[in-house]
Amino acid sequence: MNVLEVEHLNVWEERSGRNLVRDSSFRLAQGECLAIVGESGSGKSLTCKSIMRLNRNGIRHSGRIALNGEDLSILSDKAMRRYRGRRLCMIMQNGMSAFDPSRPIGAHLQETLGIHYDWSRAEREAKLAAAMIAVGLREPAAVMSRYPFELSGGMLQRVMIALALVLEPDVIIADEPTTALDAVTAYEVVEQFVRLRERLRSAMIFVSHDLGVVRRIADNVLVMKDGEIVEQGAAREIFSGARHPYTRYLVSSKETLSRHYKWLMGGVDVAQG
Ligand SMILES: Nc1ncnc2c1ncn2[C@@H]1O[C@H](COP(=O)(O)OP(=O)(O)OP(=O)(O)O)[C@@H](O)[C@H]1O
């Protein structure tokens, strides 16, 4: 069975009636990673936020979004809040905006786990510490005592990945999680996402501008343009034989970045890669 099914998703601005995402349908199987690519403003984030029911006031959506066969649109806001984090986990582009700036990271993480699990404080702390070590944060106690602004972008992304490891959601939605990072840190963070998938076998939506990253992590790719899906299919096929001219344009225009990424990953010669 599919973990997530999105059927005929439409997103629009209430005030003007302007369509922002049109008739979008896709599915996600267990353990699958689906990349959503497309230029800025094509509707990638609104698609993710609609699934999470996190769109701002003034943005409406319709269509069927089902998690393990259960239609999410019939859930109350309270029930949906319980699903967020525990079953649907979103990892944002900017780690800083995901955490409460006025409290140490550990307090925020403890509270999030406390909402979803009946563990004691000591259990929560032990699980968080183990997950932090697993994602390469060597001194969990020190990280937990810091405020968000005291950690780098790469560390904040690792903290969010560690939290996802403990929460074990059914679906992880990562919205451009590496865009704000330098190339080397982005590479390390992508590798943590790869490991996260291997460990949890969760389904994942990975939004990215960087087709090099998409090649590394995605099984399937969905291409958006002006609020519509213009192409979807297996990542290998999209990269080798894209049918839509826009996808071909994306693939060719991102080749330079991909070469740089391959070079970082495996020492492939930039000139040849
Ligand atoms: N709160 C909002 N109110 C009105 N329009 C919005 C709102 N949020 C997004 N939009 C519009 O919806 C369209 C799609 O936005 P979205 O953020 O989903 O794009 P995106 O593909 O994620 O882009 P990026 O790669 O820049 O994040 C854009 O035209 C954007 O201006």
TrEMBL record:
CDD domains: ABC_NikE_OppD_transporters (cd03257). It is found in: Cell membrane. GO terms for cellular component: plasma membrane. Its main location: membrane. It comes from the Bacteria. GO terms for molecular function: ATP binding; ATP hydrolysis activity. It is a peripheral membrane protein. Keywords: ATP-binding, Cell inner membrane, Cell membrane, Membrane, Nucleotide-binding, Translocase, Transport. Residues 6-251 form the ABC transporter domain. PROSITE patterns: ABC_TRANSPORTER_1, ABC_TRANSPORTER_2. Belongs to the ABC transporter superfamily. This is ABC transporter ATP-binding protein. It comes from Paenibacillus arenilitoris.
